[in-house]
Amino acid sequence: MTVVIQKLCYAYAGRRVLDQVSLSLSRGEMVSVLGPNGAGKSTLLKCLIGALTPCEGSVVIDGRDIRRLSPRELASYMAYIPQAHYPAFSYPVEEMVLMGTTAHVGAFSSPGAKERRLVSQALERVGAQRLAGRRFASLSGGERQLVLIARALAQQARLMILDEPSANLDLGNRALVLSLLRSLTREGYCVLTTTHDPEHAYLYSSRIVALQNGRVMADGRPKDVVIQRVVDALYGPGYAVESLHHDRARVLLPLNALEDLPRKDG
């Protein structure tokens, strides 16, 4: 599966929110779109899933322009997980995951044994079998994210699109969710996420696309994107990029905290 985004533009109230955005995605990648609030990250995702119509450019999946795909066909290619999900009704977890199978069920059919097996397998894959009998609205933020990822797995789409998947999660749940997403790329999934946190992007992504004022300003390996020049452009000159533990981790620190940071040898 390949996704090619070519010179994508989107305007709102006379202002270009996305401006000539081009990038490609392939199986086995975890790509993070990095940028501050207002950079155009969520707008880009909404254009990808067909929720917004770009004024210029195209999105092509396996040679097919998404504008020519029906909603059911599009759902067979990609699954979208929003930043926050607060359902109007408190569905059981199993039913929430079962909703992911509707793209493969006929308009006048109901989910059957095959779809129920997909639900069970998806919950097992994300380690959430224990949640099967609970109500979605009663879950914690981290548990909800796991269930929504399970729903995307049940959808059997190879591209997962997530808007700020670690937002509002505690440290442990962030690591759990992001590690799970990274592990899915080893099974042939392509994962596209947005984030405003360079550290998370650096630690878990195979590639980072830095978005500034609706334009791509950098696209490459984490170690080549999370650098001082790019961070200054995105977030201003108030932070220093420091590498720790032989460059296995890279962190941002307020400039006035540098004097307290233990330095690497050499």
Largest pleated sheet: 6 strands, mixed
Average residue-wise pLDDT: 89
Contiguous low-pLDDT stretches (5 residues minimum) are none
Gyration radius, rounded: 19 Å
Protein described:
This protein is α/β, with parallel strands linked by helices and about 270 residues long. About 30% of the residues lie in helices and about 30% in strands. It is built from nine helices and twelve strands. It has helices at about 40-50, 70-75, 95-100, 115-125, 140-155, 170-185, 200-205, 220-225, 230-235, and strands at about 1-10, 15-25, 30-35, 55-60, 65, 80, 160-165, 190-195, 205-210, 215-220, 240-245, 250-255. The strands form three sheets. The chain has a six-stranded mixed sheet with strand order 6-7-8-3-9-10, with helices on both faces. A four-stranded antiparallel sheet has the order 2-1-4-5, with helices on one face. The chain has a two-stranded antiparallel sheet with strand order 11-12. The radius of gyration is 19 Å and the shape is globular.
